[in-house]
Amino acid sequence: MNLALSPTLAACRPRQWPKNLLVFAAPLFAFRFEIEIWQRALAALVAFCLISSAIYLLNDCLDVEVDRVHPSKRYRSIASGLVTVPAALATALMLTVVSLSFAAVITPKLAGVVLLYGLIQVGYCLKLKHQPLLDLFAIASGFLLRAIAGAVAAGLPLSPWFLLTVGLLALFLAIEKRKAELRVTKNAGVTTRTVLKRYSLPLLLRLESLVATSSFMSYSLWAAGPALKGASTSWMLLTVPFVLVGIFRYQLLSDPEEVERRGTLRPDLNGEKPEEILLNDRGIQFTLIGWVLTTLLIGLVNHAAA
Question: Where do the TM regions start and end (predicted)?
């Protein structure tokens, strides 16, 4: 690869792409393992990688001056001057067109979901990220639309409990992100997000407790099976402990005292970037692997018995 392209690729934030794996949630939860379904979900993954990168480029262009005084964001390609704002905006426009065109080829409904995601995120970049609470819902909507996109692309129905669970877990991650950002800005003595002035750690802790509890209950109700119009089998209750451990583990990693104890040894696990925790924390990784393997086993047994 041409080294001149490296800063542009970095500005597209490929390390954020694992978030888009959520498009596979619908076929996995539905225990549908047909190749065509997963191929269409893969197409949704590609479309969301492209559109999300376009949004990151736009956001970094809008925040370029603020990012330059941030302790870590100042090293980003645009903030550091490695990629110019006009070049980044042109790349963002190109990625948006390609994403929407590619999604439309799969199904117009997928293109509609991608477009809605793009509009909400543009609204977030321009206004919503400065509005307390609305910023959290805007962030969470991105995860929810990813899950919906996977179902729409594959032509699968979605359980209301499934949508509620994804939405609540996404809201939980958004709160954790703001909590970590608040802690980082206080330590650095510089507030790089206007909305952080409207938040306090006690408030975010209360919101975290409410949403974490609601997420776990919602997932448990979905896992209870067809009786509650949830999963196709109540054997999914076997996966509930993994979800509980995952929530506990994430809360431990983002706890202020735990972060202080770790100090600067693991800055990749401060909670500001959920994808970094997924990529770097063994506890979260083992929990996720256990959940996936258990779900696949249940799916295979359920499919064989059908």
Answer: 38-58, 79-104, 110-126, 133-152, 158-175, 234-252, 286-305
